[in-house]
Amino acid sequence: METQKIIDLSYLRQLANGSDEFMQTMISIFIAETPAALDNMEKSWERNDWSGIKAMAHKMKPSFGFMGIASMKDVITELEADAERGAYPEVIREKITRIKAACTAAIVELRTELKKYQKSASRI
Fold first, then answer.
1. Tens digit of pLDDT for each residue in 3-36?
2. Domain extent at residue 93
3. Number of structural domains in the chain
4. Does residue 102 contact residue 72 with C-beta atoms inside 8 Å?
5. Contact 111, 11 (CB under 8 A)
6. Residue 17 maps to a domain
7. 61-90, pLDDT tens digit by residue?
8. Residue 93 lies in a domain
9. Residues 6+ apart with CB under 8 A from 48
10. Which of 23, 52, 57, 100 has a beta carbon 3.0–4.6 Å from 80's, enabling a disulfide?
C-alpha cells in the first residue's frame, strides 16, 4: 500500500520555468530552515509567546504553498489566527505537533526530490 505524498511540487515547477537550479535552491532552503523554525515555534509555545508563534506561522505559510503541502495550509493559517488571539494553549500545541509531523514527512520527500535535481544537474 502506497502512502500519500505530503508535497506537490507542481506550483514550484511552474515558478521554476524549467530551472533545476531554482528547484534545488528552493527545496534546499525549506530543508535547511524548517526544522529551526519548528523548534522556535515549540520554544515560543513553552514560553506562552503567542506573538512568536504567530510570527513563525506567518513566515512559514508561503513555503507551504511553494512545496505544495496542501494538507497543512489551513492548519498553519488557523495556528496563526489562534496565536494572535491567544486561543487555548493545548489547541495551539496540537496544531504545532501536526505541522511538525507534516514538515518532517515533507522533508523526507523533498530530500528524495532534491537528489533527482542534483543528478540531472550533474549530467549537464
1. 689 999 999 999 999 999 999 999 999 999 999 9
2. 50-118
3. 1
4. yes
5. no
6. no
7. 999 999 999 999 999 999 999 999 987 899
8. yes
9. 89
10. 57
